[in-house]
Design goal:
GO terms for molecular function: 5'-deoxynucleotidase activity; metal ion binding. The chain is mostly helical. The protein has helices at residues 6-19, 40-54, 64-73, 78-81, 89-107, 112-127, 131-150, 154-158, 163-169, 171-176, 178-193, 201-206; strands at 26-30, 37-39. Helices cover 63% and strands 4% of the residues.
């Protein structure tokens, strides 16, 4: 029987209990079909399952286990940093600093080797360069689109989100999967037509539709 390193075990258990707090970080996106806002832990779990199921649509081969772990830990820093809404430009100005400080503290709870491994995965996801990170970020972008579409676009309407804002964010989806990006475009078309998503800023300013779906008279 392997002798247990008590210090190492307690560091691991401290981290495990600390990340339980992720369940208390609520996002702007609501659960499918309506209801309450989802929390970060639910979002991360959903992303990981999506990655396993949708891996065949990735544009590049990737390590599924590595990508799923990346999904599961990518928002842990929000325990300290809080959730930054995708379309809150003011909050995004301080996001990197807040999340870096959080990463120092939270991953620092682990034994050095494990802390370094998870911190590297967190930074890899953030950089979005590797095949795993590109597809993980595609999942991060696609998941709230699916939820928003399922609940009648309520979150998009509540925040007055425009087509161009969503499409700018979905560039990251295209880097991981053109097929899933095309799915997102179809969902955007549908929700612009239904009035759940405002037309692009340029189209709204000119009083014209944006040419990618009937904007249902929204100016």
């Amino acid at each position: 029987m392997q002798e247990i390193d008590q210090k190492r075990l307690h560091q691991q258990l401290d981290f495990i209990l600390e990340i339980d707090k992720e369940k208390n970080v609520f996002r702007q996106t609501h659960l499918s079909g309506g209801g309450r806002a989802e929390n970060d832990a639910e979002h991360a779990w959903h992303m990981a399952v999506m990655m396993a199921l949708l891996a065949e649509y990735a544009d590049d081969d990737f390590d599924l286990a590595r990508g799923m772990l990346m999904c599961l830990i990518h928002d842990i820093v929000e325990i300290d940093a809080g959730d930054t809404y995708a379309y809150d430009e003011k909050a995004k100005q301080t996001q990197n600093d807040r999340e870096e400080r959080a990463a120092d503290r939270i991953f620092g709870l682990l034994p050095e080797d494990q802390g370094a491994k998870l911190r590297a995965l967190f930074e890899e996801f953030d950089a979005g360069v590797t095949p795993e990170a590109r597809f993980a970020r595609a999942m991060d972008n696609l998941q709230p689109v699916l939820l928003n579409n399922s609940n009648g676009g309520g979150d998009w309407r509540r925040h007055h989100v425009r087509r161009d804002q969503i499409e700018k964010r979905q560039i990251g989806t295209k880097r991981g999967s053109v097929s899933l990006y095309n799915l997102v475009e179809a969902i955007i078309d549908k929700n612009v037509a239904e009035g759940n998503i405002a037309p692009a800023a340029e189209a709204a300013a000119s009083g014209q539709h944006d040419g990618k779906g009937d904007a249902d008279g929204i100016a």
